[in-house]
Design brief:
The strands form two sheets. This protein has a three-stranded parallel sheet. The protein has a three-stranded antiparallel sheet with strand order 2-3-4. It is of the alpha/beta class and about 130 residues long. A hairpin with a 5-residue loop joins strand 3 and strand 4. The protein is built from six helices and six strands.
Length: about 130
């Protein structure tokens, strides 16, 4: 999918679910990385599998961490779950499965590029070096 089309979809979701612009940018960057790496874009992979895998850090408080029940929580988790809600509506997949993939600072980008996850919940800065 062309990045412009993907951006349009995220802005359409933003108007429907009232997500912040930074959430939209996060989703665009991560979905674009996945699509560039595999020839199949993240949206098509999610649609065909009925599942989205979210990469998260286990101890990046307050962005993403495990609560006492071992469940991922935090600001970034909340934002990623808003994207999942928007995907459920837009792709007409009300039973979209959400899987969780714990990552480290070293493994989070490869998890997206290698297609192990379609979305990363964390504070990742988009730098020239990471785009190489």
């Amino acid at each position: 999918m062309h990045r412009g089309v993907l951006m349009t979809r995220f802005f359409f979701w933003e108007s429907r679910v009232k997500v912040s612009p930074s959430l939209v940018v996060l989703g665009i960057v991560l979905a674009t990385l996945t699509g560039m790496a595999h020839g199949q874009n993240a949206i098509d992979a999610i649609r065909s599998s009925g599942k989205i895998t979210i990469a998260y850090r286990e101890s990046s408080i307050p962005f993403s961490y495990l609560n006492s029940d071992g469940k991922p929580v935090g600001y970034a988790i909340d934002l990623c779950l808003k994207i999942v809600d928007a995907l459920k509506q837009d792709l007409k997949l009300p039973h979209l499965e959400t899987a969780w993939l714990p990552v480290t600072s070293a493994s989070r980008i490869p998890a997206i590029v290698d297609g192990k996850a379609q979305l990363e919940c964390g504070s990742t800065t988009n730098t020239a070096k990471r785009r190489e």
